[in-house]
Design a protein that fits this description.
- There is one protein chain.
- This protein has 508 residues and is mainly alpha-helical.
- Helices cover 74% and strands 0% of the residues.
- It is built from 24 helices and no strands.
- The N and C termini lie far apart (49 Å).
- It is a multi-pass membrane protein.
- This is Major facilitator superfamily (MFS) profile domain-containing protein.
- InterPro entries: GLUT, MFS_dom, MFS_sugar_transport-like, MFS_trans_sf, Sugar/inositol_transpt, Sugar_transporter_CS.
Length: 508
């Protein structure tokens, strides 16, 4: 059987098991939106700044200091904002530990260890009515953020290392597919007649830890990454056994030879820490591409679309905007499936360019629709269509590809540090958009999408000029693509020169 073409039951189980973490990430991302009003009431009562009676009196105009809605009280606003933002802060902090956790005991044991965080977070939020609600939820969201910051690095790293070359893109995209399914599940069960109500919301938040429980039972059945076993631990026989478990009976000599060459190169290189990776001129081009891919994902305006979609649907006369937003979630899932099918045929670069270019056009269409919908009623349907198309283009390329392409761009030595830096870049830009978008929206109003159109155009041009196609290539071949344009002294097989260059840059 030809090496690199096998899809086995063990490989399917391993990928399914690790993407349960991605499902949990998506669920945690979306779950906080639906029950906002209900949770704000609990915050108001717990803090002693709001009550139903005061709200009624305030509504009748008989009490000056009352707030008709708990969410209008400054203390509640502050604690609610913290509940949403602390998730990103946790992710930012823990993204730097991805390499350490992944290399400490292996990818599988690393995922097993951090499940303690997910279960703890689920319990804190699920039992939040038992003590001070705001403290419990903020603590739970912070711990869940720490967990998600780690899995956003570990999951693509593990899948990238175990996937056969021919299916690396499709299997890598499953991380994003699981995340958007998680978002959709959270939107559906967050409806007020399901769990998004006064009685059931703690269960809704607590369920974010449920996939970790199932995963804890399945992870021991998954093989460790052969690349980790061979290149990091030097265990050739165990790596070979892991390859056979993942790919079935086949001639593993080509895979082992590729790993042997990568190990030799890794052994000659100093250990690449985050600081030395930033300083090294040898990896600068790859690192810049990795960071730009993640920036293009977060600064594309996708979060703004989810923030604005209910408003757009309301203006367009949709009687149940919450259901229209769930419709956007369904489109999310469908087009991520399209990406899974296309990514190993069309290629990473092509799909990213098509996605970013399409989103740029949709952002312009949305601006035109929003500006003219008061003059022409049919323009509201232009805005609605633009929302659905914007999400479709995002999930075809810019959504899933940045997560797994970083693992493809770097060899074993710098890979954990690169994934950690890219993850931190993703979380930081996510946090920045969440914090500043409402202010930018107030300032620019419906012209806000022109800002995103300009950013999208810039990212499209950069990726067209700088990002190579990685489809169907070995990690060595991808690395060689970046060194083609370098001077001969810093090129190719002369690893001594590469080592010297890295040493120079790390000592600088």
């Amino acid at each position: 059987m030809e090496s690199g073409k096998q899809l086995t039951g063990t490989l399917a189980l391993a990928v399914f098991t690790v993407v349960l973490s991605s499902l949990q990430f998506g669920y945690s991302l979306g779950v906080i939106n639906a029950p906002q009003k209900v949770i704000e009431k609990h915050y108001g009562r717990t803090l002693g700044v709001w009550s139903e009676r005061a709200a009624v009196l305030s509504g009748n105009g008989t009490e000056e200091d009352g707030f008709p809605e708990a969410g209008q009280h400054p203390a509640v606003v502050m604690y609610w904002s913290l509940s949403v933002a602390v998730f990103s802060i946790g992710g930012m902090l823990s993204s730097f530990l991805v390499g350490f956790v992944g290399d400490l005991r292996g990818r599988i044991k690393g995922l097993l260890m951090i499940n303690v965080l997910a279960v703890t977070a689920g319990l804190l939020m699920g039992l939040s009515k038992m003590w001070k609600t705001h403290i419990m939820i903020i603590s739970g969201r912070a711990v869940m953020g720490l967990y998600c910051g780690l899995i956003l690095g570990l999951v693509p790293m593990y899948i990238g290392e175990i996937a056969p070359k021919a299916y690396r893109g499709a299997l890598g995209t499953l991380h994003q597919l699981a995340a958007v399914i998680g978002i959709l599940i959270s939107q559906v069960i967050g409806l007020d007649f399901v769990f998004g109500n006064d009685d059931m919301w703690p269960l809704l938040l607590g369920l974010s830890g449920a996939p970790a429980v199932l995963q804890t039972f399945l992870l021991p059945l998954c093989p460790e990454s052969p690349r980790y076993l061979y290149i990091i631990r030097g265990k050739e026989q165990e790596a070979k056994e892991s390859l056979y478990r993942l790919k079935g009976p086949y001639d593993a000599s080509a895979d082992l030879e590729e790993m042997r060459r990568e190990k030799e190169k890794a052994d000659r290189e100093p250990r690449v820490s985050i600081i030395s990776l930033i300083r090294s001129s040898l990896y600068r081009q790859q690192l810049f591409v990795a960071l730009m891919m993640h920036l293009s994902q977060q600064l594309s305006g996708i979060n703004a679309i989810f923030y604005y979609s209910t408003d757009i649907f309301t203006r367009a006369g949709v009687s149940q905007p919450a259901f229209a937003t769930i419709g956007v979630g369904v489109v999310n899932v469908v087009f991520t499936l399209v990406s899974v099918a296309l990514v190993d045929k069309a290629g990473r670069r092509t799909l990213t360019l098509v996605g970013l270019g399409g989103m740029c056009c949709c952002a312009v269409a949305m601006t035109v629709g929003l500006k003219l919908q008061n003059e022409y009623s049919w323009m509201s349907y232009v805005s609605m269509s633009a929302v659905f198309l914007f999400v479709s283009f995002f999930e075809i390329g810019p959504g899933p590809i940045p997560f797994f392409i970083v693992a493809e761009l770097f060899s074993q030595g710098p890979r954990p540090a690169a994934i950690a830096l890219a993850g931190c870049c993703n979380w930081t830009s996510n946090f920045a958009v969440a914090m500043f978008f409402p202010y930018i929206q107030t300032w620019l109003n419906s012209y806000v999408f022109i800002l995103f159109a300009v950013l999208l155009l810039g990212f499209t041009v950069y990726i067209y000029l700088r990002v190579p196609e990685t489809k169907g290539k070995t990690f060595e071949e991808i690395s060689a693509l970046f060194h083609k344009g370098r001077k001969k002294s810093a090129q190719g097989p002369n690893n001594g020169t590469e080592l010297q260059q890295l040493k120079t840059s790390t000592d600088a």
